[in-house]
Structures are given as C-alpha cells and as structure tokens.
Write a structure and sequence with these properties.
Length: 305
Amino acid sequence: DGKVSEGGLNVTLTIRLLMHGKVKHFMLPKGETVKKMREESGARINISEGTCPERIVTITGPTDAIFKAFSMIALKFEEDINASMTNSSVTSKPPVTLRLVVPASQCGSLIGKGGSKIKEIRESTGAQVQVAGDMLPNSTERAVTISGTPDAIIQCVKQICVVMLESPPKGATIPYRPKPASAPIIFAGGQAFTIQGQYAIPHPDLTKLHQLAMQHPPFTPLGQTTPGFPGLDATTPTSSHELTIPNDLIGCIIGRQGSKINEIRQMSGAQIKIANATEGSAERQVTITGSPANISLAQYLINAR
C-alpha cells in the first residue's frame, strides 16, 4: 500500500502472523520483548487483544523494517527452542515454525502455476512452506506455514513479501479473527446448554433453534439413527430454496473433505446441493430442499459459517 522507491525498500507492507500460545514471549515481562523489537526494527508491531489461545501479530512498515522484525522473531523462537532442549532428552532440534495469514486471493501467486513458485521458494531458501487448502474460519484468508532455520525463514519471508507486492489482493479481504475456544453444547430436556468449566449454562438461542428443528421431520436428534416423532405428520410439504455464495467463501461452507456441509445437512435435516463452478462466474449456486423449518435452519447454519 505504498509506492516503490528506488531499490524497492520504501514500500509499506503489512504481514500478519498467527501465534498459538507463543505470544506470551512477546507480552512478558511487561511487553519488553515486543517493545525492543519495535524500537530496533522500526516496524509497527501490534498483538490482537482477547483471551483466545490464538493471537494475530500484525507487523507493518517498510520492507526492510519487516525483515528486521522477522529476524528478531525467528531468533527469539530459536532461543526458546534451545532453552527447551537443555533439560530434554530430545536429540534432534525442531525447526523454527511461523504461521503467516495471507489473503486467499494472493495464495495462487504464492503457489504459482503447477506449484512452480512455492517450489522455487523452498529450493532457494531451504525453508519448508505449506499453504493451507482451506480458508481460516469466517474469513477469506489462508494460513501459510513456514519452518526452517532463522536464516531460511528470513529469506523465505523476503520472497513472500515480493510476491505479495507484485500480486495485491483482489476484491475485499475478510480478515481472520481468532475466537475463544468454543464450549461444547449438549441438548437435554428440550433445552440447549453450553458447558463452561463444571457448569451447564442454558443457551436460549440454540434452544430455539433445536426446538424449531425438532418440530419437523426428517431432523434426526444427534445420537439417534432414525427420526422418532410420534403424532407428527410425516408428510410435511417440502420445498426448495436457492442462494448464491461467492467462490472465495465456498471453501468454508464445504469444509475439509465435505465435513462442514455434511454437518449442516445432518443438523438441519435438509438436502443441500452445491453446483459445480461455472467458468467466468464468481458465484456458486446452492439448492436447499426440505420442510420450511429444515430450510431456515440450513440457511442459518450456512450464514453462521
């Protein structure tokens, strides 16, 4: 989002890192580590708020400041690995591993035609680079995992920055925001409860949803193999509803190997068909068939995804 000057070092760029638990290294003691990184690199470094196990670390600045910040982060992780090995019986040293969060629209350029670009980055830097197949929940971003020695990681980040500058994101990006670990849900006595610690907390929204679903066959309560609704008319009229979903969001509806769409089918009791991608179209047609309650429940669950 800046102008390239001679030498290309005056470009302002933002790189997002996803950290799980490790963020405490930057926060403690009293945020001194991150303060030192900001001062020495000249980059703006922000850490997302919240009680989630995952945090987003946003690093913004000229490319040379970003490389300096990444160098300090990689070396800090290397120190932590060395420290953890001193009293350990582990003999082989694990690589430093970082997870970048990259708009899905830029991942194609990062992979390259037939995987050519990612192969070139791996071979020239010695780092391992993996681009996740699925988008991160409720976002249009994907995780890019890089691992290797601190030096390999710096070289790898440099090449990734070049690709990101040459291929800006297309369209609007919905950024990934970590959510607190979701509490398990149980249904008992027609009520929905979320489990928090050793207590079951009533959840009115989920209760309404559950009751709506239970009123209309062919919804099967979880754990039951056949619907059992004595006294209910099994000939509830079925209808169809069509909606369109942008191509770049279809992945989070389908899930890995169809896991999410199957879950939505099972919970809603509706039949859901996703049309194949048509050339030149940025959207996919989705057809939901079932009773009005099945359809509205399926729509709710798709929107929630």
